[in-house]
Specification:
Length: 314
């Protein structure tokens, strides 16, 4: 729980926003997905969703952005709901220590991706969600799930981002074809990637993202309702994967600095979980060398420290 003398959360967010708003060193906006490079690097949004229902916001918390790989947390949750532990026959649970789109590791490991939060792993997860569906039905199921989690029917996919990545996602095509060669994709590569690119193009604001992720802070239950999304054990395990794998080869550093399970995306968003307390969404489009939001990581470091939320605090 927060230390008794921790400042009020709105004050913490306002202070973090004021300190980072004019920062010059903001990292570099992703440009390998052409549609993403138009995003204004000056944007900074911060939201906290408490498990008791309160929420706090600062800056551009209501501007939707491309959540990209943060969506892998939601597709992983859906796939586990469909096939349970059988998923782990096709995807590992170890940190990769490599870039999010690394190809070399797949060869060593015979087409079994290291974990579900790197691109290759999330493509297998998309293949699982596709089973028994046409791609548009699978995409619809993912959108409905995220709307349900966020209690917000206005959430949509940005079709321009999906199209842009479909046209330029050569590495993801390579990863998918390679896994297909090992028999670890069961559907047509284009269909699987269609699902993957579309869920990466989900557009959410920090407010919506913090709300959508709150079940992971609330022992698997929706905030403000009795509905269970997943069991307590599953929520705990998803959090464990976020802590160890959610920032690719920057996961160790994120745990060191922030001390919370987190998942980043190349759109500059990060979802972090303070188990039993809150979920936090931050967005700043400039990325560091590992492809994680530079100011977003700093914002979370400041929030976790000031609120005393690191899971490693005694
Ligand atoms: N859609 C992006 C890709 O496949 C997701 C990567 C990310 O957010 N790290 O490259």
């Amino acid at each position: 729980m927060p230390a008794r003398d921790a400042p009020p959360l709105q004050l913490i967010l306002d202070r973090v926003y004021a300190r980072l708003r004019d920062e010059v060193d903001r990292g570099k906006v992703a440009d390998y997905i052409p549609e993403l490079k138009h995003v204004d690097p000056q944007r900074l949004g911060l939201s906290i969703q408490m498990v008791d229902g309160q929420s706090f916001h600062a800056g551009d918390a209501d501007t939707p952005f491309s959540i990209q790989s943060v969506s892998k947390v939601f597709t992983l949750t859906l796939a586990l709901g469909k096939v349970g532990d059988a998923l782990w026959r096709r995807v590992g649970r170890e940190p990769s220590g490599s870039a999010f789109n690394s190809i070399v590791q797949l060869e060593y490991e015979h087409g079994i991706p290291r974990n579900p939060l790197i691109n290759a792993g999330a493509i297998v997860v998309a293949d699982v969600i596709l089973a028994g569906h046409a791609p548009r039905e699978a995409i619809g199921e993912i959108v409905r799930f995220v709307r349900f989690l966020a209690d917000d029917d206005t959430i949509t996919i940005d079709p321009e981002v999906a199209r842009s990545e479909t046209a330029t996602g050569f590495r993801n095509h390579a990863l998918a074809n390679y896994m297909r060669a090992f028999g670890n994709l069961h559907h047509d590569v284009d269909k699987v990637l269609g699902v993957y690119f579309h869920h990466c193009a989900l557009s959410l604001s920090c407010r919506q993202l913090a709300r959508a992720g709150a079940f992971l802070a609330n022992r698997g239950r929706l905030v403000g309702g009795a509905n269970s999304v997943v069991s307590e054990e599953r929520a705990r395990r998803i959090n464990a994967l976020m802590l160890t794998c959610g920032h690719y080869d920057g996961s160790g550093d994120f745990a060191f600095r922030v001390g919370l399970p987190g998942k980043s995306g190349v759109g500059g968003g990060i979802l972090a979980i303070a188990p039993g307390i809150a979920s936090i969404a931050v967005w700043s489009p400039g990325l560091n060398a590992n492809g994680n939001s530079q100011l977003g990581s700093r914002a979370l470091e400041m929030i976790a420290r000031e609120a005393d939320w690191s899971i490693f605090s005694g």
